[in-house]
Amino acid sequence: MLAQNFDLGLMMITRLVFIVTAVTALVMAAVAREDAYRAAGKKTKSFWLIVLGLAVAVNVVPFFSMLLLSIAGLIASIVFFVDVRPALREVSGGGRRSGGGSSSDGPYGPWNGGR
């Protein structure tokens, strides 16, 4: 009986991780600008919203709770996180600045007197 409860708990945690990953990817895809997808050379925003929306639906709706579809949704979310999201951030100017900027740089230049 203890093993059965452990398996049930493990499946619930796994499903929760799949849902959180898919929802987070969907929100990030929805927030990004449409032109950033084109500039990064990735599929369109509509494509990613549909794919990630299906990933959320597969994990949330009990009718679709087939493990293979859930894993496919997780893979789509991971592809978004490791390939598409970094490209969107680079094109949009998000993240850390490149070009030798220092952590002491303010909006109009260095705060440390140019040192």
UniProtKB/TrEMBL annotation:
Membrane spanning residue stretches: 12-32, 44-61
UniProt keyword terms in alphabetical order: Membrane, Transmembrane, Transmembrane helix
Region feature (Disordered): 91-115
Bias type Gly residues, positions: 92-103
Entry keyword annotation includes Iron: no
Coiled coil: none
Pfam families reported for this sequence: DUF2516
Protein name (record): DUF2516 family protein
Organism: Streptomyces sanyensis
